[in-house]
């Protein structure tokens, strides 16, 4: 049985953060779930502004922590593209500060990064592949990776976990670039939509990522600098995902057109950023998915 740990989860009110907290709590670790604005209305969260360096240092000065799972980020590519300076504060400066605190305090830091650090032209990507992000979001997450890994040679226990596009149980569908497709399917008002059929993705359930994070954080040997986790299932386009969701909603999608053209003026998105799970598998960490994409949606939409 794995030793119980005190685990801090940043961004714990978000889609991934909630799943991670649930997993660690279910395994009987002591969990401190950090949030900012949502902490004002939910006492389960500990309120902390990660961009307030003094407050963050004060928190870690008064809490003995074993692991920090850093889920907090500005994850929306269009938002990061529109205001990169603001997004960089959470995507670059915050993880850099946490890495320095990991060095000082001795806790393990797992930094959640993205497949968007790659340009999408050379998939599948191993952990040692050279990043080449196409847009501000990917650039910032890569800069965050560089910042945290720069502290690692000092002996700090720091690992980057890159993950792809996520889905799962949302508080509102816009929390996920996949769950939001349900809104498009359900909009039977007469409005028309185009749905991308070029970019292939590996939609990955947040509960599977939470399991991998738990196993990694309780791994008995030091972790490598970078790990990847993505669903091992066949890749899908947004058009594929939309059809699956519509099938289980039993709704027509005559108002949605399959789009194979490259969007002009939009935030650039890589066409294929499939991540290889080889590094995790070599550690013996389970990389299966508990439920397939279609089976998960079939069950979820019946609730």
TrEMBL record:
Pfam families: RmlD_sub_bind (PF04321). GO terms for cellular component: methionine adenosyltransferase complex. GO terms for molecular function: methionine adenosyltransferase regulator activity. One of its GO terms (biological process) is S-adenosylmethionine biosynthetic process. Gene3D superfamilies: NAD(P)-binding Rossmann-like Domain (3.40.50.720). SUPFAM superfamilies: NAD(P)-binding Rossmann-fold domains. Residues 6-287 form the RmlD-like substrate binding domain. CDD domains: dTDP_HR_like_SDR_e (cd05254). PANTHER family: DTDP-4-DEHYDRORHAMNOSE REDUCTASE, METHIONINE ADENOSYLTRANSFERASE 2 SUBUNIT BETA. This is dTDP-4-dehydrorhamnose reductase.
């Amino acid at each position: 049985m794995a030793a119980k740990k005190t685990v801090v989860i940043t961004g714990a009110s978000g889609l991934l953060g909630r799943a991670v907290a649930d997993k660690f709590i279910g395994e009987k670790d002591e969990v401190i779930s950090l949030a900012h604005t949502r902490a004002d209305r939910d006492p389960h969260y500990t309120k902390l502004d990660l961009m307030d360096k003094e407050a963050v240092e004060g928190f870690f000065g008064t809490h003995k922590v074993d692991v920090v799972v850093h889920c907090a980020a500005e994850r929306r590519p269009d938002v990061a593209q529109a205001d990169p300076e603001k997004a960089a504060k959470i995507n670059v400066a915050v993880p850099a500060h946490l890495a320095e605190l990991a060095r000082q305090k001795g806790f393990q830091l797992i930094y959640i990064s993205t497949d968007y650090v790659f340009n999408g032209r050379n998939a599948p990507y191993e952990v040692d592949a050279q990043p080449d992000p196409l847009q501000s979001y990917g650039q910032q997450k890569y800069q965050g990776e560089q910042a945290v890994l720069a502290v690692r040679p000092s002996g700090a226990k720091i690992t980057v976990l890159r993950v792809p596009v996520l889905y799962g149980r949302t508080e509102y569908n816009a929390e996920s670039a996949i769950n939001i497709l349900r809104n498009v399917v359900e909009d039977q008002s007469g409005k028309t939509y185009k749905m991308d059929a070029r970019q292939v993705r590996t939609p990955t359930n947040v509960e599977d990522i939470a399991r991998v994070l738990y196993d990694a954080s309780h791994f008995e040997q030091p972790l490598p600098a970078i790990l990847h986790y993505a669903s091992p299932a066949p890749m899908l386009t947004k058009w594929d995902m939309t059809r699956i969701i519509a099938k289980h909603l039993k709704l027509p999608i005559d108002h949605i057109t399959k789009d194979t053209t490259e969007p002009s003026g939009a935030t650039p998105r890589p066409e294929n950023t499939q991540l290889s799970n080889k590094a995790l598998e070599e550690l013996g960490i389970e990389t299966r998915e508990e439920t397939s994409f279609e089976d998960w949606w079939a069950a979820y939409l019946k609730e």
